[in-house]
Amino acid sequence: MTRSTRRVMEPSASPGPGTPTAVRLGGVSKTFRGREDVRALDPVDLTVPAGEFVAIVGPSGCGKSTLLRIVAGLVDADPGGRVEVQGRPVDGTPPGLGVVFQTHNLLPWRTVEANVGLGARLAGVPKAEVARRVPPMLEMLGLSGFAGKHPHELSGGMRQRAALGQALVCRPDILLLDEPFGALDALTRDRLNVELLRIWQELRQTVLLVTHSIAEAVFLADRIIVMSQRPGTVVEDLRVDIARPRDPATTRALPEFTETAQRLSRLMGVT
Ligand SMILES: Nc1ncnc2c1ncn2[C@@H]1O[C@H](COP(=O)(O)OP(=O)(O)OP(=O)(O)O)[C@@H](O)[C@H]1O
Questions:
Q1: Structure pTM?
Q2: Can you state the angle between helices 156-168 and 127-140, rounded to 10 degrees?
Q3: What is the mean pLDDT of residues 236-255?
Q4: Closest Cα to residue 112, out of 172, 155, 65?
Q5: Does 161 contact ligand 1 (Cβ within 6 A)?
């Protein structure tokens, strides 16, 4: 069987019925209290099986980051909602969770190597084990030649790759990505999407990715959650029926890709 035939026959990564649940949100809402209250989220229900790649899209300010931060235990949801990660109610940052934001959290005075190992060290992974994990991670992310450099000596794309490495070295079961490549130029972003997909295909963590890019969502995800204007809630839960493995040239040329992207554009009021 040729590689291209296999591509057509390989199903999209829909989890089977016995798959454990990675993230479960039930009636999760959020109002930021202040001089003027901001209602960020209307009740959201969302169940994500382990190993699924989910993209979250929606208008600016609709509460996507807030939703991700609630899952990460960085923001408290309003009372009454239920937030569970791997079957446990969220109270503080759950174990097994990796987070990458649009702006990286690399420490400027530490080398790339030290930064990539930092999250794992803070999570209590022994020094020797971190030292074992970091080099292959740098290799995987194409940063081997930059291990001894500092963040300011890297390009924007390299810094985001290092931030991704920092999360991945902790071997998270669930990866929360909040516009991780949003500040990068289109070409670098495309390249990092391909890398992200390659890594995900190897490690198969659960991924929740917030993105503004319809093309990025369709290319990467098994499923796309579309949110309404603020206060955000789920208005559409779309399955992306495009076979894996995916590569940019072939996948974007598929009629299913165009159809899904057009449907999303309509839902988001872009066209
Ligand atoms: N800590 C906070 N205090 C008060 N209001 C907040 C806070 N964080 C977010 N908000 C408000 O909640 C709403 C949702 O913000 P959020 O960042 O979640 O949206 P978003 O969909 O991620 O936006 P974008 O796509 O522009 O990044 C916005 O109106 C924002 O101003």
A1: 0.90
A2: 140
A3: 92
A4: 155
A5: no
Ligand 1 binding pocket includes 189 (Cβ within 6 Å): no
Q: Which residue's C-alpha comes closest to atom 3 of ligand 1?
A: 32
pLDDT computed for residue 271 by the predictor: 63
| CB 66 near ligand 1, within 6 Å | yes
Residue in the block written with tokens 């072939």: 250
* Residue 29 CB less than 6 A away from ligand 1: no
Cross-strand partners of 238: 224
14, 21, 38, 37: which is closest to 83 by C-alpha? Answer: 21
Residue nearest to atom 2 of ligand 1 (CA): 32
Cα 182 to ligand 1 centre (Å): 16
| Nearest-atom index, ligand 1, CA of 179 | 27
142-146-147-150 Cα dihedral, nearest 10 degrees: -130
Ligand 1 center–CA 169 separation, angstroms? 29
Residue 71's pLDDT is what? 96
The ipTM is 0.98
* Domain architecture of the chain: domains with CATH: 21-96+173-268 (3.40.50.300), 107-171 (no CATH)
pLDDT tens for 59-100 read: 999 999 999 999 999 999 999 999 999 999 998 888 889 999
Ligand 1 lined by 61 (C-beta under 6 Å) = yes
Q: Is 35 in the pocket of ligand 1 (CB under 6 A)?
A: no
- Answer whether 234's CB lies under 8 Å from 46's CB: yes
